[in-house]
Amino acid sequence: MTSTATTFPRLPRTTRRIQTADREVFVSMRIEQPEVALFDNLLSHDECDALIALSRVKLKQSTIVDPQTGQYEVIQDRSSYGTFFDVNETAFIAKLDARIAAVMHWPIENGEGLQILNYKVGGEYKPHFDYFPPEQPGSAAHIAKGGQRVSTLILYLNDVEGGGETIFPPLGLAITPKKGAAIYFEYVDDQGQVDANTLHGGAPVLAGEKWIATKWMRADRYQP
Ligand code: PD2
Ligand code: ZN
Prior knowledge:
alpha+beta, 3 helices
């Protein structure tokens, strides 16, 4: 499937339960314009623990895309540690990639590899867009690898003792991390227009630590 075959929104507004191949997922909150949905029961607690254990051993300081050069840079705005799993890297990751694609209503092959992030106390991700701003020179090289990003799923792998909400400042919305739940949002419509109201960030962790997994979907098949 490519962006030209898209119905919009990707996640139908009437969907309340999603029966994936191996798990029933609940849509516990919806917003329209921009399209945001909270999923409950997406991952089991054992799956969350397994993702953390597999990631802990290979964490590196997170980077962002420099708007001018398109190069990955370590910056203060993103004080987390992270790692990636290639799509379908193992049987376990393949099972999760399939479930994630089912709830995002978008093909597995359009997804970037699952990214795992770990924030310690004080760790945050300042408000940003997940799409590559079309007007920025650094975006072109990334858009060339499967098109624009169109939707995001942030999966919460633990309960955070204090802080660490995912915030959407233009919407006045804050999501408290809950182990096994996930927040979904989409930001490119069927005309290819990006939605600046999806500006979002990860609030500072105040106590404990925060673990998430992020899936970013592209308009077309992703070419790493
Ligand atoms: O950790 C978060 O809550 C968060 C917030 C904003 C993660 C991302 N963006 C992301 O991975 O894009
Ligand atoms: Zn983000």
